[in-house]
Amino acid sequence: MPLVSNKFTRILCLTACIFGLSACGNSDPYVLGFIGGLSGRVADLGIAGRNGVLLAVEEQNRSGGINGRKVLLEIRDDQQDEAAARAGVNELIAMDAAVIIGHMTSSMSVKTVPLMNEKRIVLLSPTTTTQQLTGIDDYFIRVIRDTAAYGERNAKYRYVSQGLRRIVIVYDTRNAAYTESWLHSFKTSFEKLGGKVLKAIPFRSGDDVHFSQLAEQMLIEKPDSIQIITGAMDAALLIQQIRKVEPDLPVATSEWAATEKLIELGSPAVEGVVMAQFFDRDSPLPHYQQFKKMFEKRFSHPPGFAEIAGYDAATVAMRALAQQRSDEDLKQTIIRIGSFPGAQGTVNIDRFGDAIRETYVTKIENGTFKLIQ
User: Fold this and answer.
1) Interatomic CA distance for residues 371 and 362, integer angstroms
2) Looking at the chain, which runs of residues are DSSP E strands?
């Protein structure tokens, strides 16, 4: 059954109070905002996160909502554009959103966090991992670890397990808050181990990128491996060009590219590509298997990392709303609770709103992501 508007709900509440039928102030829906890139080159990430949030909200409403109040989800597209991101956040704030879940990319989150701090409203991100927002007492909270965890894990695997020493990196400056943070983490860790980053090549994602030329620019250094820090679409197109020249060269991506879109667009060229991420798609955990079954029934395809991160973010938000005390804001509630059940293990959040959770190395094998370490 669709939810009625806030205005109409308030009228119903007032009427009920006049006739003594219910208590005022407790029947309005909780408004949850979601904002992410739902269009453009990184729409796979935004749509996946939205679907995870949507599943969690629908599940909550079927069980009676939050303390008897339904949850109304309002969705906005930030278009991976600063102006659109600010406009979307302002619209959600004007709707009295209790929390805004988003953004899905670091570049958008760093632009709107100051506004959220000013309004003292939590921005709860499924997938923002930039270190620019790490260890800060603000209204930004996330449910996965920052780039240090993924860059370091990737570097160690590539140096120790794969025996690689000379790497060229390419990174997308359109999401510089993420890619430059990830690049720094990887380079520092890889070179500390004894490896060498021969060159870090920036590019700006867009329709005018010539991936054959970019691949040529990377391969001229004669590296023993390539590291790609981009979204799934650009990673897939670039890997296809690399494989035309060096079919057996080891390639890795950052976790940003590790959506199912990478396999869909890049297969078979992406076979053997590795990445560090927080998600084990083959986990036998009962709660994850239940989540996976519900997600597949609702959306007709299995969940990826962004779907599970969206689901976890919404779960954190709604559990905190259910346990919020009258003398604290939602940020304080989340920090006080600290540990939340996720679709795949516990989400632990520290006093700065940064998440602590497991990190795995995965590899694309036979068209699927397989955990290898």
Assistant:
1) 4
2) 30-36, 71-77, 99-102, 123-125, 140-142, 166-172, 196-203, 225-229, 251-253, 274-277, 339-342, 345-349, 355-356, 360-365, 368-371
The reported pLDDT for the residue numbered 26 is 63
Average pLDDT, the chain: 93
List, in sequence order, the alpha helices (H) in 200-285: 211-219, 232-245, 260-266
| Residue the block writes with tokens 């709604």 | 318
Sequence-distant (6+) residues with CB within 8 A of 85 are 35, 78, 79, 103, 108, 111, 112
DSSP 139-197: SEEESS--HHHHHHHHHHIIIIIS---EEEEEEEGGGHHHHHHHHHHHHHHHHHHT-EE
Q: Return the structure tokens found at 364.
A: 């694309």
Helix (H, G, I), strand (E, B) or coil at 223: coil
Q: ∠ CA 188-190-195 to the nearest 5 degrees?
A: 125
Q: What is the pLDDT of residues 254-309, one digit of tens each?
A: 999 999 999 999 999 999 999 999 999 999 999 999 999 999 999 999 999 999 99
- CA dist 225 → 3, 110, 241, 344 (Å): 53, 31, 14, 32
| Cα(198)–Cα(127) distance, integer angstroms | 29
Quote the distance between the C-alpha of residue 222 and its chain's center: 33
Tally of CB atoms within 10 A around 328? 14
Please count the other Cβ atoms lying within 10 Å of the Cβ belonging to residue 166.
Answer: 13
Q: How far apart are CA 234 and CA 180, in angstroms?
A: 17
Beta carbons of 244 and 216 less than 8 angstroms apart: no
Other Cβ atoms closer than 10 A to 289:
13
Whole-prediction pTM: 0.90
In tens, the pLDDT along 185-219 reads 999 999 999 999 999 999 999 999 999 999 999 99
At residue 27 the predicted structure's pLDDT band, cuts being 50, 70 and 90, is: confident
